[in-house]
Design a protein that fits this description.
This protein has helices at about 25-40, 55-65, 90-105, 125-140, 150-165, 185-195, 225, 230-255, 260-270, 285-295, 300-320, and strands at about 5, 10, 15, 45, 70-75, 80, 85, 110-115, 140-145, 170-175, 195-200, 275-280. The chain has about 325 residues and is of the alpha/beta class. The strands form three sheets. Strands 11-10-9-8-5-4-3-12 form an eight-stranded parallel sheet. Helix 1 (about 25-40) packs across helix 2 (about 55-65) and helix 9 crosses helix 10.
Length: about 325
């Protein structure tokens, strides 16, 4: 599989988002998913201390036992608590505590990519950056990244690092998919300015871009909307607004011999700043589908056309819903 650079690291263009590993999926199912990903050339595994209160890191470590070489483990600290960004978890002391916990759970001596999960409103970003710089100097962390920062926040972090001589962020992980393209106007340009790799999460818009949800039909029982992961009223609103854009994108993909899910992944891989598409999975077959999708190389013109199709139909759907 194609690999791209994040700082000194090389990552597969499709990564495995591990929020389902050790949580929705038990240890046995998780091992099957991880091993299939490895067999297909995926080397980027993205987890977080927040996922299952550390269980995801533990189960990922078990699944990688004997196969750690060449793998890029990315994990995160300072997640959400009670629905809001954690307070105080990105302090100098908080960073040290968090990294020791992740190293222990991951059963490794070094974390390849250590990421600030959310900005900590109670802690100056310079304090966090200085703590992360000490971790890279000590060899416990190879590279550092950020998640869910705005373009302006990324610019500020880069300025501080340049002025203080600190190790900078080499990646930014933000939501980006055909239905939510805001990062292209804000975060992607910041990544280009600072030579950072963009790691888009929710590439399939929480399953909406798989095509599994059909107009006039109830959500599949095993889907997020069908299981009740999303409140029924909110799920209905999301799907009603999405049907128009998804159907237009399905037609676009079908005319080129592909599915809308393949288009969703291939479109992200076609973005110049994207290093690895972080796609979750609950079955090995989903990993296989994501890898197949990345084999479709969209031209710059096709990528622009797909983005335009999604935006045009989203505006129509939003107007119809009063949004």
């Amino acid at each position: 599989m194609e690999q791209r650079a994040i700082g000194s690291l090389r990552v597969s263009v499709v990564g495995l988002g591990c929020n389902q590993i050790g949580t929705t999926c038990d240890a046995r199912a998780s091992k099957a998913i991880v091993h299939r990903a490895l067999d297909l050339g995926i080397n980027c595994f993205d987890t977080a201390e927040e996922y299952g209160d550390g269980r995801s890191e533990e189960v990922l470590a078990e699944a990688l036992q004997g196969r750690r070489q060449g793998v890029v483990i990315a994990t995160k600290f300072a997640g959400w608590v009670d629905g809001a960004p954690s307070s105080g978890r990105a302090t100098a002391a908080g960073v040290v505590e968090a990294v020791e916990g992740s190293l222990r759970r991951l059963k490794t001596d070094v974390i390849d990519l250590y990421q600030l999960h959310f900005p900590d409103p109670a802690t100056p970003i310079e304090e966090t950056l200085r703590a992360l710089d000490r971790l890279t100097a000590s060899g416990k962390v190879r590279e550092i990244g950020c998640c869910n920062l705005s373009g302006a926040e990324i610019d500020e972090a880069a300025r501080i690092c340049a002025e203080a001589g600190l190790r900078p962020f080499v990646s930014a992980q933000n939501r980006l998919n055909l239905l939510r393209q805001e990062a292209l106007d804000d975060v992607a340009p910041a990544c280009e300015r600072h030579r950072m790799g963009l790691l888009p999460y929710f590439p399939l818009a929480a399953g909406v871009l798989t095509g599994k949800y059909r107009r006039g039909e109830p959500p599949p029982a095993d889907s997020r909307m069908g299981r009740g992961d999303v409140a029924a009223e909110r799920a209905q609103k999301i799907l009603t607004r999405a049907f128009g854009p998804v159907e237009a994108l399905e037609a676009f993909a079908r005319a080129r011999g592909h599915t809308v899910a393949e288009l969703a992944v291939a479109w992200l891989a076609a973005q110049p700043t994207v290093a690895s598409v972080i796609a979750g999975a609950t079955r090995p077959q989903q990993v296989e589908a994501n890898v197949r999708a990345a084999a479709w190389r969209l031209t710059a013109e096709e990528a622009a056309q797909a983005a335009k199709v999604a935006r045009a139909d989203a505006k129509v759907a939003g107007a119809a819903q009063g949004g």
